[in-house]
Amino acid sequence: MRQSHSSSSRLRPSLCRLSLHLAAAGLLGGGALTGWPAWAQSGAAIPVPPTPAPDPAASAPFGTLTATPSPDGPAQLTARRVTSVLDGESVAEGEVELRRGGLQLTADHLRYLQPSQLAIAQGHVFLRSQGDRYTGSAAQLHLDTNAGTVTEPTFFFGKTQAGGRASRIDFDNPQRLHAYDASYSSCRPEEGAEPDWVLRMDQLDLDFDKNEGRAQGAVLHFLGVPILAAPVMTFPATSAAKSGLLPPTISIDSRGGFSIAQPYYWRLAPNYDLTLGPIVSTRRDTALQGEFRYLLGPNDEGSIAAHYLPYDETIGRQRYSVEAEHYAAVGDGLHYEWSYQDASDDSYWKDFSGMLPSLTPRLLSQSFKASKQWQLDRGDVTLYAGVQGWRTLQDVDNPITVPYERAPQLGVHLNLGLPQGLDFSLETEANRFVLADRAAGDDRAEGSRVHAITSLSRRFDSGWGWFTPKASLNSASYSTDQPMANGRQHASRSIPTLSLDSGLRFERDVSWFGAGLSQTLEPRLHYVLTPYRDQSSLPTFDTAASDFNSMSIYQDNEFTGVDRVSDEHQVTLGATTRFIDDQSGIERLRFGAAQRFQFRDQRVTTSGTPSTKRASDLLLFASGQLTPAWSMDTLLQYNSDIHSSERTILSTRYHPGPFQTVSGTYRYARGSSEQFELGFQWPLYHGGGTGQSGSCHGTLYGVGRVNYSMKDQKVTDSVAGIEYDAGCWILRVVNKRQSTGQSETTQRWMIQLELTGLSSLGTNPLQVLKDNIPGYQLLRDDKTGAQSTSETP
Question: Which CATH superfamily is domain 8-180 in?
Answer without folding.
Answer: Lipopolysaccharide (LPS) transport protein A like domain (2.60.450.10)
